[in-house]
Design goal:
The protein has about 425 residues and is mostly helical. The protein has three domains: about 25-165, Cytochrome Bc1 Complex, Chain D, domain 2 (Orthogonal Bundle); about 180-290, no CATH class; about 305-415, Orthogonal Bundle (Cytochrome Bc1 Complex, Chain D, domain 2), CATH 1.10.760. About 45% of the residues lie in helices and about 5% in strands. It has helices at about 5-30, 30-45, 45-50, 90-100, 115, 120-135, 155-165, 180-190, 195-200, 235-240, 245-255, 265-270, 280-290, 305-320, 320-325, 350-355, 380-395, 405-415, and strands at about 65, 70-75, 100, 105, 225, 230, 255, 260, 360, 370-375. The strands form five sheets. Strands 1-2 form a two-stranded antiparallel sheet. Strands 3-4 form a two-stranded antiparallel ribbon. A hairpin with a 3-residue loop joins strand 3 and strand 4. Helix 2 crosses helix 6 and helix 16 crosses helix 18 (about 405-415). It starts with a helix and ends with a helix.
Length: about 425
């Protein structure tokens, strides 16, 4: 046998050995413990909510997300090697999740909350990588292209956006705070990406703050409009009066005696927070309770006594049977409206929307029976809705501002166009 042939045979044999070893490593390169930990962290990050279309398979993508420049669709993040992330190295996975840059230098739209995920530490990123590579079944569903026209499809401006608005640093514990506080801050600011909804955004859709300790930290978690809902000001007067136990109860069940989760928050609780360890929920509550209160300065609309009186009539006819004449509701069944954080919110959108479109409580392990409120958009006109919402915001110790029929009309149109 010639030297050349020996070399070819030897090289082929070596390649076969290496391929077998690599194949074995790919099949069992992560321990069950790493994969399970990554599963837990993926729940904390609520990855399934955005990367799953309605009625679709988990993590296969396809969820439509409307943006000011058009609509995009979440991507397939299963380990499929053609349409998913199966060929990603850890470094590529980390760069996409924490820095918003996919392989090949393609910048992701900030609908992906990488400004928050940037705070996740390397150990947790490796556990997440283990889970998505070994704990999620691959699926060959192709990704869907954005509904945008050129030049909106050009992505290099996102690099400028990142340079201006993203603070690309991992979470640093505050030595002045307890271990519980730091754990809560890490979860809220990082994987939980709570600021993505609960922090107001600027002119260029950037979060005005990414942490309570960073630039503009006083604005962090002070509330924002999201899909025609108002993501609650977590530093407002109402929630600051809550106990840590009440915050934990909300994150586990979706409701408390005087509050019910609404809008996208129901999905967060269903997919994410109800599955977290009690000690992690307690840490999050400790962190949120520690934040300096923030009460927006505004001139409340004056209440018209005639509107309040008309609203009382609408309430007695349509609402009192469930929420009771005294606004106390029925414990664990119908939420009380007296001193309810949603009712007293400076922004009345959530109260208006629930009256118009109805709603359902989130189904969780600790609250498996949903309660449904019917919509009243067909039976009540804009003035009647304005009157009844004004009434509940002015009664039973509530002191919120009045609602105008023009506000109801605008929200009604927005809901119809959704």
């Amino acid at each position: 046998m010639s030297k050349k042939r020996v070399w070819r045979v030897g090289r082929a044999a070596l390649a076969g050995v290496l391929a077998a070893q690599c194949g074995f490593a790919a099949a069992a390169r992560f321990s069950d413990q790493e994969v399970q930990r990554g599963d837990y962290l993926a729940r904390a990050g609520d990855c399934v909510a955005c990367h799953t279309a309605p009625g679709g398979k988990p993590f296969v993508g396809g969820l439509k997300m409307d943006m000011p420049i058009g609509a995009i669709y979440s991507t397939n993040i299963t380990p499929d090697k053609t349409h998913g992330i199966g060929n990603y190295s850890f470094e590529q996975f980390d760069r996409a999740v924490r820095h918003g840059v996919a392989p090949g230098g393609k910048h992701l739209y900030p609908a992906m909350p990488y400004p928050s995920y940037a705070r996740v530490n390397e150990a947790d990123m490796k556990a997440l990588y283990a889970y998505f590579m070994q704990g999620v079944p691959p699926d060959p569903t192709p990704n869907r292209k954005p509904d945008m026209v050129w030049p909106m499809t050009i992505r290099w401006p996102l690099a400028v956006w990142n340079w201006l608005f993203v603070r690309d640093t991992t979470f640093t514990p505050d030595p002045k705070q307890s271990a519980q506080w730091n754990r809560g801050a890490y979860l809220v600011e990082g994987l939980g990406h709570c600021g993505s909804c609960h922090t107001p955004r600027g002119l260029f859709f950037q979060e005005k703050a990414l942490s309570s300790r960073g630039p503009n930290g006083d604005l962090y978690l002070t509330g924002s409009q999201v899909e025609h809902w108002f993501a609650t000001n977590l530093r407002g007067n109402c929630l600051q009066k809550w106990t840590e136990a009440e915050i934990v109860e909300l994150l586990q069940t979706g409701k408390t005696a005087h509050f019910t989760a609404l809008g996208s928050m129901t999905e967060v609780i269903s997919h994410s927070t109800q599955h977290l360890k009690p000690e992690d929920l307690q840490a999050m509550a400790i962190y949120i309770k520690s934040l300096k209160p923030f009460v927006p300065t505004q001139t409340p609309a004056a209440r018209n006594p005639a509107s309040v009186q008309r609203g009382a009539q609408v309430y007695n006819q349509h609402c009192a049977a469930c929420h009771q004449a005294n606004g106390q509701g029925l414990p664990q069944v119908f939420p009380g409206l007296a001193k309810n954080a949603t009712v007293q919110c400076s922004d009345p959108n959530n109260s208006i929307r629930v009256v118009l479109a109805g709603g359902s409580t989130v189904v969780t392990a600790k609250a498996p029976a949903p309660m449904v409120m019917p919509p009243f958009a067909q039976s009540l006109d804009d003035q009647q809705v304005a009157d009844v919402v004004t009434y509940i915001r002015a009664t039973w110790g509530n002191g919120a501002s009045a609602v105008a029929p023009e506000q109801v009309m605008a929200l009604r149109k927005a809901i119809i166009n959704d």
